[in-house]
What does this fold into?
Amino acid sequence: MATHHLAQVNIATLRHPLDGPELAGFVAQLEPINALADAAPGFVWRLQTEDGDATAIRPFDDERIMVNLSVWSSLEALRAFVYASRHLGVMRHRRAWFTRMADPYLALWWVPAGTVPTVAEARRRLQLLARSGPTPAAFTFRDPFPEPTGDSAGRSR
Amino acid sequence: MALPFTMVAMDGAPTDRDLAAIGLLQDPVRRALYEHVVAAGGEVSRNQAAEAAGVGRGLAAFHLDKLVEAGLLEASFRRLSGRRGPGAGRPAKLYRRAAGEVAASLPPRTYETAAHLLAETVEQTGADLELQAAARRAGVRAGRRQPREGGLAVERLLAARGYEPYRDGAAVRLRNCPFANLSGEFPVLVCAMNLSLIEGLLEGVGEPPGRAVMDPAPGRCCVAVTSKDNQD
It folds into this structure.
């Protein structure tokens, strides 16, 4: 049994209001893609309100920024969902829906199995990635770090 | 296509190993064996490969092992009967296409490095939609150049471009991602580019572009061509 799970945060800045015609394609995919995630091998948890998604959570000063926060059993499980499922087909429209961000918009880190991260924690991980580049405490798909062997949860190794 | 993460291939002059591997395929028997294993899309036994190439089992084994040595195929041992323990028999030696790439360009051309730098730049500038539009145009041009005679123009075109199409029910799936290293590193960017390219190919041969859909799964190209138009 794995002692750690992989936490994932990504943020996206809406180009247009969520309830407008420009985002209709995105909104239409929310439910099926979230259902796909929930049923995906290795899915553990995702941030959501009673609407069943996290689109109402706007934790940044810029209220156009939405957040995705989830936990997976492994990097491979998350990668398979993100890049080798119907989710990939949705992401190809990302530039029509979201503006490009100069700062890191995705961060990964290991959490002790059975715990889930907070939004504040996720923000810190993104800031850490922006400040220090990929480290065990905040990394990316392109520069991953292995699951910690101890119980340090990627703080320092 | 979502392949396991691959290292960025370092371009350069072809190595002796690359040239030797390609040279091996000059032999018609080896070439036939290699092509049979590739077309099978999975593991192939010595007997199956020998039968397909029309040669004896011993000769097939000799050539298959040469292909393994050269890094073109990978071998594994498995019991085909599913039985275990004493009396289950010796495990069979099975062959599949090796994951690594063999490439040689003379004079040396280093497109891989250029492609990674360009992809990185497109990613950083967020020019996904411009890339998709360029891919669509390139696909249309290539499709229009395709000779029209006979049916299955789409499949021939995809085969000629290295996608290795195969039938899966009513859909045509693609065994090979021609951009594998690049799509491993920039999946969203490159798979979307690939879909646009194939939409363009369809348009160019007079087929509905909506037949191309994103349908990724581990171990194959992210795009499938369905029998009907899926345009929404």
